[in-house]
Amino acid sequence: MKHTLVALMEDHPGVLNRVSSLFRRRGFNIESMSVGHTETPGISRMTIVVDSSDTSVEQVTKQLYRLIEVLKVSDVTADPNVARELVMIKVHAPSSRRAELSSLADVFEAKIVDVAHDSLMLELSANPDKVENFIELVRPFGIREMVRTGRVAMVRGSNSHAAEAYVKTA
Amino acid sequence: MSETRSGAQIMCEALIREGVEVMFGYPGGAIMPFYHALPEYPELRHVLVRHEQAAGHAAEGYARASGKVGVCVATSGPGATNLVTAIADAMMDSVPMVAITGQVAAQFIGKDAFQETDVTGITQPITKHNYLVTNIEDIAYVLKEAFHIARTGRPGPVLVDIAKNAMVARTTPRWPDKVNLAGYKPNYEGNRRQIREAIRLIGEAKKPLILAGRGIQLAGAFAELRELAERTGIPVITTLLGIGAFPENHPLALGMPGMHGWVHNNRAIQECDLLLNLGSRFDDRVTGKTSTFAPHAKIVHVDIDPSEIGKNIRVDVPIVGDVQNVLRAILEELPARDAAEWVRHIHAIRDQHLQRQQYTRPDTDMFMPHDVFAAFTRILNERGAYRVCTDVGQHQMWAAQLIDWLRPHTHITSGGLGTMGFALPAAMGAQIAQPNETVWAVAGDGGIQMNIQELATIRQEGLPIKIAIINNGYLGMVRQWQELFHERRYSATPMWSPDFVKVAEAYGIPGICVTHQSQVEDAFNTAYATDGPVLLEFQVEREVNVYPMVAPGASISEMITESPMAVV
Predict the structure, then answer these.
(1) Nearest residue of A to residue B186 by CA position?
(2) Are residues B424 and B298 part of one domain?
(3) Which domain holds residue B427?
(4) Which among A26, B293, B469, B544 is least buried, having the fewest CB atoms inside 10 angstroms?
(5) How is residue B335 annotated by DSSP?
(6) pTM of the model
């Protein structure tokens, strides 16, 4: 089963390296990891997807907490949450197939963000299952290039993982 | 207060503020500003080692013998990389240590400058935390944080890499009065509900057993452990790093478990219905094959590091906290009980295997390593006030098995990392921490040569360390494995050594070579009668094995219990 972890950490140089080095050293298998700023300066937020069939989610969480700069780790899998992933696909698109691709994009609410002689660039931001589905349907057209961001997630409702709580008071 | 200081002066003053009295180090280009400032602070003793690895182990020896934070200092590049083994050693054994390294000036970082190494990158997985400081304004705070992290929670090594430009800059120092670490809040109090559950299990168990580890030593929970054992009659097994946590002459003391533990201990673990792990991390040398470990036991695991709980062994009652606090909370409500029948059962197993486990002199002229340890333990008990630093290998196991360990922090060894070359430099640190005690460095012929250059440090500092080399002309433990598991193919284990007595003499240290058991007692007595350092070399029987033994990867139910005299 795939678990989604949300981790808040101090935005220091090297902290991403500490996390990835920890995963490597402990032999944790990570499906995806994405990191960026939060609403609070100085605090980064990482979304980590772990497959619990081969890696202990509890150990991932506990080992993350051993890092001094890691402030909070939550497994949000069981919480109602919104998970999103962004994919950009450059797909083979001779004029004969553009209409078909375009209607497929419409169904998925994907955007055509670049048009070239014989290719289109599609962009989709959606929940990871939908992204997966979209890729499979686009694949027969001939994917030339693809990039995915990995999952980001936020729990619904007013309970939050706001980084503000961890601002240094000194 | 408005007087300015150099970064190097701030480093020195920060160390003094942290209560540092001694550091072990080696100067070089990038750390030179620090060494330039050092003579201005005579309260900071600096011990010049002969190799940076020894600085790290000496800092560990100091920390392990005193409970204070050990400090080592090296320059950038090779100086820093030479510290790596000792840092890893401190990490594995939870030793509070601060390693300070010089770094090339900030504008050269990343340019492959002379003696530049990414030491924070290198030491990331082997430090509790590390820092690269390039700005003088950060020095005072970072050092405060470093010492705080090193000594609190589960102790460990912290490395502070300071760029040369920050050391030579000047500023008006601002001394922080507290640290502010939002992500670092060790939990010292155990969960009340889990503690109550542990109390309930202690009350119900028929065959309860205590496994005491290094956590007891780090928390100083000796009285609490003893009270727990005495109030309940539960016998106590001590791990290699738990040695000394419970006096081995106590009727409830059982000694060491695991790969070279006693048969009755491993049997007791396999039979017990409640295992109270107090501050041990279920190392594989203790558990053997984890799937067969303690199959009938409910397991209570007390550890200050939550990540240790459930890492190697399933746990029924996890208690995250300082083991002293947890034991106090348990003792507040714990009713007395007894486990006399269970203890008698374990003692019966012990008696049954005594012959095989404990050495009795054969009627031969063979000079057994056991002869040395039998005499050694007698003499240690007679003379008292000792610390014994052991190296790694056969002698380490014999020392753990055969010496009567009675007091905390008297046994100092490299457990988790198993670092050959540890004993001699660790003894330097231990001697400085405990100047009024007799500090022994015990090593094999292999390990002693890994840091033998430290004889010069010992001589220069006038440290009265007594050194015992158990020389069997082999890398003995590896040879033993080759004998038992690798078809007796003694690949790269026979070892020529120099005349250790002459080596010692070259360093201005008297040496005695012992080749017969009749000379052992005299040699020890001479060592004690000699002021200052002495080196004893014991040329023992070459092919003797450490028993009992659990084969690597095997269950602790399967012990090889050959008599130590099987070679006869």
Answers:
(1) A66
(2) no
(3) 369-543
(4) A26
(5) P
(6) 0.95
Q: Residue B369, exposed/middle/buried by CB under 10 A (0-12, 13-18, 19+)?
A: buried
Q: Domain holding B157: CATH number?
A: 3.40.50.970
The full DSSP string for B374-403 is HHHHHHHHHH--EEEEE-SSHHHHHHHHHS
Is B52 known to be catalytic?
A: yes
Q: Which of A56, A79, A102 is the last residue of a domain?
A: A79
Identify all chain A residues contacting B309, using CB atoms and an 8 Å cutoff.
62
Share of chain B above pLDDT 70, in %: 97
CA distance A17 to chain B (A): 9
Per-residue pLDDT at B522 exceeds 90: yes
The verdict on B311 touching A (C-beta cutoff 8 Å) is yes
Q: What is the pLDDT of residues B220-252, one digit of tens each?
A: 999 999 999 999 999 999 999 999 999 999 999
Residues B177/B141, Cβ–Cβ less than 8 Å: no
- Residue B142 shares a structural domain with residue B57: yes
Annotated catalytic residue, options B11, B259, B450, B477: B477
The SS3 assignment for B553 reads coil
Q: Structural domain of residue A96, as residue ranges?
A: 82-152
Per CB-CB distance under 8 Å, the chain B contacts of A168 are 180, 182
- At A170 the pLDDT is 39
- ipTM score assigned to the predicted complex: 0.88
Residue A18 domain-assigned? yes
Nearest Cβ partner for A58 among B132, B182, B310: B310
Number of separate domains in chain B: 3
The reply to whether B375 and B336 lie within a common domain is no
**Stretch among B336-350, B361-375, B427-441 having the lowest mean pLDDT:** B361-375
Please list every residue in chain B whose beta carbon sits closer than 8 Å to the beta carbon of residue A65.
306-307
Burial class of residue B436, CB neighbours in 10 A (0-12, 13-18, 19+): exposed
Residues B340 and B373 in one domain: no
pLDDT band at A162 (very low <50, low <70, confident <90, very high): confident
